[in-house]
């Protein structure tokens, strides 16, 4: 139950971070170079949001694998 809530909250946080990244990128797209701090922050938010989404998806799967009982292979 706690893992499901954590996963859901991480997905919402990642959506907010990605939305902020899109806003920053669109607001600072006029000067497309590496000296444009707003654009670089927006790209960082995009990458960070995808990382948060990835963690929110993978962590519950890892916990689920650890909680399953060990199964013995069937020998014929």
Q: What would the principal axes of the Cα set say about the shape?
A: elongated
- In DSSP terms (H or I, runs of 4 or more residues), the helix count works out at 2
Largest sheet: none
List low-confidence stretches: none
Helix content range: over 70%
* Overall pLDDT metric: 86
Proportion of strand residues: under 5%
Question: By helix and strand content, what is the structural category?
Answer: mainly alpha
- Give the termini separation: 38 Å
List the helices and strands in order.
HH
How many β-strand stretches? Answer: 0
What's the structural domain tally? 1
Rg over C-alpha atoms, rounded to the nearest angstrom: 19 Å
Summed up, what is this model?
The protein has 76 residues and is mainly alpha-helical. It has helices at residues 2-27, 37-67.
């Amino acid at each position: 139950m706690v893992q499901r809530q954590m996963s859901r909250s991480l997905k919402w946080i990642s959506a907010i971070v990605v939305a902020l990244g899109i806003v920053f990128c669109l607001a600072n797209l006029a000067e497309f170079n590496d000296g444009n701090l707003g654009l670089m922050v927006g790209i960082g938010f995009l990458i960070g949001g995808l990382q948060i989404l990835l963690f929110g998806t993978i962590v519950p799967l890892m916990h689920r694998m650890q909680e399953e009982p060990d199964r013995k292979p069937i020998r014929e």
